[in-house]
Design goal:
Length: about 290
């Protein structure tokens, strides 16, 4: 019997926040292999990401709010076993796509474990932890989706899109840490958000997102996807509005950098970005 705490700590719903990378990559694939696209989605969003969440919770044993959960339950040994099974299934299913995809998924899993594992714990270092997330949840995840879903199993990808994907994740990542400064510090973890401070986190996010959208503008204009880029800007408006609203509140009172506002920011940004890239995908399919 799967325990309630195991299901909760896998945080399947948290995959929504990482899903924009999948739709972004899929929208840029010239010829899509739809069977592979389904397999890739299942491997990443049903197996790899939830297993990573679960393993992180098993290592951290959080007693305060974490991403997507305000009151996390305590993990059990069963959670660890389930994450190992899920990771194993992910690598196995990946072989149906390609050997490169399978190796990439395995590498992603190993780095994810190193990020949380107490013996290595990459997350305890502000710069290394940040770059690990940027490279793997952003750039590598984009490569995996693009490669796995393309009819030709392309291995050489347009560099602006890979970097933009990393910056999309990297720009938002510090905001997900802003309410955990005290809890992380007590656990021996110094996050990039802690180093930047409350105001610095918002400024850093704004700078990185500006760079990301600059690259996206270059890519979409150079590939004549003008309509798609305009739509991306329109869908992003609610995110910008909430971002500046929240930043203003934090500027006046740092207690506003809390779990509630972080999750609202996460939800708005992920829903809007997902819808934007899904719309671009549909436009490109019917050109």
């Amino acid at each position: 019997m799967i325990q309630k705490s195991t299901i909760q700590l896998l945080r399947f719903h948290f995959s929504l926040f990482l899903m924009p990378i999948y739709w972004f990559a899929l929208s840029q694939v010239p010829e899509i292999n739809w069977l592979n696209a389904i397999i890739v989605f299942i491997v990443l969003h049903v197996l790899v990401y939830p297993a990573s969440n679960g393993y992180n919770s098993y290592m951290d044993r959080d007693e305060t709010a974490i991403g997507g959960l305000e009151q996390p339950m305590l993990p059990t040994r069963q959670l660890y076993i389930v994450t190992v099974v899920m990771d194993s299934l992910a690598v196995l299913f990946s072989l149906f796509v390609s050997i490169y995809f399978s190796v990439g998924v395995l590498l992603y899993i190993l780095v994810s474990r190193a990020y949380s594992y107490r013996g290595i714990r990459l997350k305890q270092y502000p710069i290394i932890g940040f770059l690990t997330v940027v490279v793997f949840q952003g750039g590598v995840a984009y490569w995996l989706v693009y490669h796995g879903c393309s009819e030709t199993l392309a291995t050489i990808l347009p560099w602006p899109t890979v970097i933009a994907a990393g910056l999309l994740i990297g720009g938002f990542y510090p905001l997900t840490q802003i309410y955990q400064h005290d809890a992380d510090k007590a656990d021996g973890v110094t996050t990039i958000s802690y180093v930047l401070g409350y105001r610095g986190t918002f400024i850093f996010t704004a700078i990185v997102y500006t760079l990301s959208f600059g690259l996206l503008a270059y890519w979409f204009v150079s590939t004549l996807q003008i309509t798609g880029f305009v739509l991306l800007q329109l869908f992003f408006i609610p995110t910008l509005i909430y971002f500046f609203y929240w930043a203003n509140k934090v500027w006046k009172d740092t207690s506003a950098a809390n779990f509630k506002h972080t999750m609202q920011m996460n939800l708005i940004a992920s829903v809007c970005t997902n819808l934007a890239f899904i719309t671009i995908l549909i436009l490109n399919l019917f050109e």
